[in-house]
Amino acid sequence: MPTHADPLEPFALLEGLDAEARGRLAQCCARRRFAARQVICDLHSVERDVMFILEGTVTVSSYSRSGREIAFAELGPGHYFGEIAAIDGQRRSAAVTAKTDCLLLAMPDDHFRALLAQHPDIARRVMVRLTSLIRSSNERLQSFSTQSVTQRVSQELLTLCKPSQAVPGAFIVHPIPTQADLGSRVGASRETVARVLLDLAQDGLVIRKGRTLTIPDRDRLGALVEGLRGGLATKVA
């Protein structure tokens, strides 16, 4: 956990900076608190600070033409966001909302650009992160254009699952996101996600009990994602 004296110490982006340099950077920043579900920045808003997450979790999202929210990522302590607007001087490229109560450190965009100019290693880390975002966006676009909602929900469950400690060979998602949260991640309505989960359960691909969803056979669910079980894969468009 970051200390009040050196709040930027946990951030891998700033690896190589000594405590004194991090302290000077922190003095240029402002601490900002946000309550759970509070909007931190809107899509296309004009502020360009880079936000370093000290406490809490945020959701990064955009919107479809119909106005449906599409979540791209959840970020927690040690992560940062807002670098795109800080670099190019344009409006925000995504909306960010506090998923939990959050404490952020806001770095003015001119200080962030100066940091990149003075430290090539840090600039390279930012470039690597941006290329990762591009790759992730390309994969998401491909998923939306080539996969059914059933396949996209199944892929999200595979991404979230971890090996079960109770059932050898099985995987679990705990706590399972709400149907609305899953819908925002895969670009579907809550009602559609509910139908998909019911279909998966009826086919024996998932078992839900309370806030835990068990995947008895990860390979079977993976085969559905790959389109090897076409009937269920296309059941919900």
UniProtKB/TrEMBL annotation:
GO CC annotation terms, alphabetical: cytosol
Location of the Cyclic nucleotide-binding domain: 13-133
Keywords assigned by UniProt, alphabetized: DNA-binding, Transcription, Transcription regulation
Pfam families registered for this protein in UniProt: cNMP_binding, HTH_Crp_2
Domain HTH crp-type as annotated: residue spans: 147-219
PANTHER family named in the record: CRP FAMILY TRANSCRIPTIONAL REGULATORY PROTEIN, DNA-BINDING TRANSCRIPTIONAL DUAL REGULATOR CRP
Protein name (database record): CRP-like cAMP-binding protein
Naturally occurring in which organism (per UniProt): Roseospira goensis
